[in-house]
Amino acid sequence: MTAPPPDEPMTAPPPERPMTAPPPDEPMTAPPAAGVAVGCHRLIHIYPTSTGDVVALSGVDLQISPGEMLALVGPSGSGKSTLVAILGGLMQPSAGRVYVGDHELSRLSAKGLAALRGATVGTVLQGAERNLLPYVSLSRNVWLAQRPAARLAGRRLDPPEAILDLVGLAGAGARRVGDLTPGQRQRAALAQGLAAGPGLLLVDEPTSQLDASGRDEVLAALATVNAERGTTVVVVTHDSEVGARLGRAVTIRDGRVGAEGRNGRDFAVVAGDGTIQLPPETLATFPAGTMFEVDHTDQSITLRAVASPSSGEEAAARENGRAG
Ligand SMILES: Nc1ncnc2c1ncn2[C@@H]1O[C@H](COP(=O)(O)OP(=O)(O)OP(=O)(O)O)[C@@H](O)[C@H]1O
């Protein structure tokens, strides 16, 4: 990233200092952006409102390995955006711990969070246009997004053209957002999120307004980023196909991890407090308050319903009687 792209208007402000000069002890080549690990432990987030507190996250336990790709899926209002905003350093959780790489985010100051946003985490907001300036070229968009990282990390970054190439937009640097197809626009937004060479890329609903071929292009771009840079990728999506294609899909339900899908198979997940969420269709048959006998072996757990909520007292009395 030596100079602003050549096609830019003369009014573009010059960088305050050369962005190419790394500190003397830094290598002159860009280090590969290795993916970072993410960890959430009993993560809780509450929004205080004038009508009372809204519990958005109620104890999320989640581990993501460096370089992993996963989808966060779940119904509207389940807490996906809140989780991503916390992972992206946009807000602090109410309680619990969250790690991004070596950083425990609740310990970071506002300045520390800004540094995280600038150099470690790239966030792509829902709606490609929200991430891009319409009146400058794609190269210039990426270059502008690199400025905070170059200042914060003092490291050399890839030229904008290389980042555009990575997302399948080679040779499109001089174009503007208005010239692009929806799929290209979304990939330009990815390039913006990747500008600083983040170890974690968070992408909100990248395929929601795309047809099948646009969706394929975006998924291919994410796969390339992940394979070539090792970047950890987290995608929020309502599209179960996207979840299936990323290999790992974590379902957020009622503010916690409700289930997980891996390579086409669905699994229940034991939370840090020992609870397991029943899928909605199971809950319809066995509503809250149903009493079960629990048997387990090393390999399996068997739940045998002994009483519905309405007959709970009666069943408990029967069980007590049997015990006595
Ligand atoms: N700023 C806020 N103030 C108050 N409540 C909020 C705020 N943001 C989100 N919420 C509430 O927190 C809960 C989780 O919302 P969140 O947006 O994280 O869910 P989501 O799964 O991302 O939903 P969607 O898929 O619709 O974007 C919801 O009940 C929502 O109404």
From TrEMBL:
Q: Which GO terms describe its cellular component?
A: plasma membrane
Q: Which residues form a coiled coil?
A: none
Pro residues bias locations = 1-30
State the Gene Ontology terms under molecular function: ATP binding; ATP hydrolysis activity; transmembrane transporter activity
What domain of life is recorded for the organism?
Bacteria
Ranges for region Disordered: 1-33
PROSITE patterns in alphabetical order: ABC_TRANSPORTER_2 (PS50893)
Which keywords fit this entry according to its UniProt record? ATP-binding, Lipoprotein, Nucleotide-binding
Q: Does the keyword Repeat apply?
A: no
Which Pfam families does this one have?
Answer: ABC_tran
Please give the PANTHER family that the UniProt record associates with this protein: ABC TRANSPORTER RELATED, IMPORT ATP-BINDING PROTEIN
Could you identify this protein by its name? ABC-type lipoprotein export system ATPase subunit
Source organism: Micromonospora parathelypteridis
